[in-house]
Specification:
Length: 297
């Protein structure tokens, strides 16, 4: 049974959300909070995939996600904006996912919700508000001219389009690097194609979905992308670890006493470009004690 016609809806009033999400959210809301985004995603299924219903609420102080459990109960995850480590958006055909990594009691945590990607723009707008709140709208650049940047010259059309569409608003594009997928024996895909963008506020990683096929005898088209927004003011450290067939870029995110690592595999011939981009990314935070290590080949 398919429910691909079940689309997320956006409202401004908690009273317009369905039960039991309404009650769970009202119990957590503060009187002085102002709702900016309120997105309800009904239960969504296509083929063998099924996602339970969820509710995303972004206020002027924090975010909250109410998830429906299989037994009909609800759970609530939440954090203030200053506890967020990164935000990830996945769009693959009709499937969409919003994932937030954050710190709670000094430990990194992750929460995610799934939705019908037809209404993906609701979630993109909520992500923009979250990113603005992390470093303050007053610090945001009003100059966005990335669509005509020479940085994209030679990139595949899909990645050029993704970069223009998913680059955060109010951000100025500074640098970028793209590489093809990394393959091992029998043409097995070890890592997907990736583009990394550097703006004045964020590191944005755009990756194709990783293929699950072990053997590749011909090219298979990929239509989706996984976009990770890593605020530059969350960058505590970066390392480049060399390996025989590839290198690994390790980003250390932090907030207070909690943090986590994000690893990105890239080809050896992109080492110089990746090092340049990361040196620039860490320069603004160097005064705050950001260290880095680039191991020799």
């Amino acid at each position: 049974m398919s429910s691909v016609d079940q689309f997320p809806t956006s409202t401004k009033r908690i009273e317009d959300t369905p039960t039991p999400f309404r009650e769970a959210l009202l119990q957590r809301m503060h009187q002085n909070e102002s709702v900016q985004h309120l997105i309800f995603s009904p239960e969504f299924g296509a083929a063998k995939f099924r996602a339970l219903a969820s509710l995303l609420c972004v206020t002027d102080q924090r975010w909250l996600i109410v998830l429906r459990e299989s037994d009909g109960s609800t759970i609530v995850d939440e954090s203030s904006f200053d506890s967020i480590l990164l935000v990830e958006l996945t769009i693959i055909l009709l499937y969409g996912q919003l994932k937030i990594d954050f710190v709670l009691d000094g430990k990194p945590r992750t929460t995610a919700l799934q939705f019908n990607a037809v209404m993906q723009h609701f979630y993109s707008e909520a992500i923009q508000s979250i990113l603005d709140a992390i470093d303050g709208k007053e610090d945001a650049s009003t100059n966005r001219d990335g669509s005509r940047s020479s940085i994209f010259v030679g990139w595949p059309l899909k990645f050029r389009n993704f970069s223009i569409i998913y680059m955060p608003e109010k951000s100025q594009l500074l640098d970028g690097v793209y590489w093809n997928e990394i393959r091992g024996g029998f043409s097995r895909e070890l890592a997907p194609a990736v583009a990394v963008l550097l703006t004045d506020r964020h590191i944005v990683i755009i990756a194709e979905e990783k293929s699950s096929r072990w053997f590749h005898f011909r090219h298979h088209a990929k239509y989706g992308a996984i976009i990770t927004y890593f605020p530059r003011n969350r960058l505590a450290d970066f390392r480049i670890e060399p390996h025989s067939r590839f290198n690994i870029l390790e980003l250390q995110g932090h907030e207070g006493h909690g943090g986590e690592k994000l690893e990105i595999m890239f080809p050896r011939d992109k080492r110089e470009a990746v090092s340049r981009l990361m040196e620039e990314a860490s320069s603004a935070a160097s005064c705050a004690g950001v260290d880095h290590l680039v191991k020799p080949e």
